[in-house]
């Protein structure tokens, strides 16, 4: 029953696919636009039919089939297909959510196109195990500045793509217009990682990046450090003190950083501080009521005192801290 439904789904899907080709070819009546007629023996049909169901689904969601049909009408393709495990359990859920947001369609497309090269590289064509033997292949991800995937060998001869992903099922699917190698993890092009970074502070994604490629954005490290950029509109003094604590503001109107990087996205940075910042007094400054900060009386506490309080509070002995 389930498999019948699945077959029916595939058939409908294939029909939609064919309809879409005819649909685009017919209206303009251009005899030159005869290029695409998908062959049922195509590697694309095989992909949709394969056990790489997560990847197929993403290709479909990314609206990439038509692009790929055009590609296979001119070239053989080689697809490095992350297995379902890599796309389900090993993928950072936040990254996956990001990719599936409609506004990030381009990122999803680029991510997927980075797994496909427009030539046929079977396991027999893989670089040998000689030291230093490697091949670099351009991918279909044309938006990527370094749009190449290195194909290499690991220490025990295993085939490696993108410097990190092991080929777990070489030549898994072979068709006249291309083939599919199963790989153990996702390859993330730098441009997509940057798109993601721009919106999120990056923590877990580094786990799925290819090590061999220089894809670790230095900004990543900066985000991880408890850097203390000046919040917009804050008094301009931020000082790191000898003990490593970070102080905002001056004198009575200052506060210590105690919860760094609650939220950062490149433009906005939210830092937790332990007091109320007061503007540095200058004689000519007139503070309008709308912008004057409320003075929460003497909330500013010494750092040591705060530590002492929370420590004592943990034992429930003192109530005098507040
Ligand atoms: C497609 O059109 C080109 C000319 O644009 C022609 O040379 C070629 O033979 C056509 N192919 C098919 C399969 O009709
Ligand atoms: C794809 O590869 C096969 C086998 O190498 C070859 O016969 C065929 O012409 C290629 N197709 C295209 C479109 O290059």
Secondary-structure topology with pairs:
Elements: H1 2-28, H2 43-49, H3 53-61, H4 65-74, E1 77-82, H5 84-88, H6 93-100, H7 105-113, E2 116-117, E3 135-138, E4 148-153, E5 159-161, E6 165-175, E7 178-183, H8 190-199, H9 218-224, E8 238-240, E9 246-248, E10 255-264, E11 269-273, H10 303-315
Parallel strand pairs: 1-7
Antiparallel strand pairs: 1-2, 3-4, 4-5, 5-6, 6-7, 8-9, 9-10, 10-11
The structure holds 2-acetamido-2-deoxy-beta-D-glucopyranose (2 copies).
One 2-acetamido-2-deoxy-beta-D-glucopyranose is lined by residues 32, 34.
List keywords for this structure.
322 residues; alpha+beta; FAS1 domain; 7-stranded mixed beta sheet; 4-stranded antiparallel beta sheet; elongated; disordered C terminus; binds 2-acetamido-2-deoxy-beta-D-glucopyranose; signal
How would you describe what is shown here?
This protein has 322 residues and is α+β, with helices and mostly antiparallel strands. Among the domains are: 43-206, Roll (FAS1 domain), CATH 2.30.180; 215-227 and 236-278, no CATH class. The protein contains 10 helices and 11 strands. The protein has a 7-stranded mixed β-sheet. A 4-stranded antiparallel β-sheet has the order 8-9-10-11, with no helix packed on it. The radius of gyration is 28 Å and the shape is elongated. One 2-acetamido-2-deoxy-beta-D-glucopyranose is lined by residues 32, 34. Keywords: Signal. InterPro entries: FAS1_dom_sf, FAS1_domain, FLA15/16/17/18.
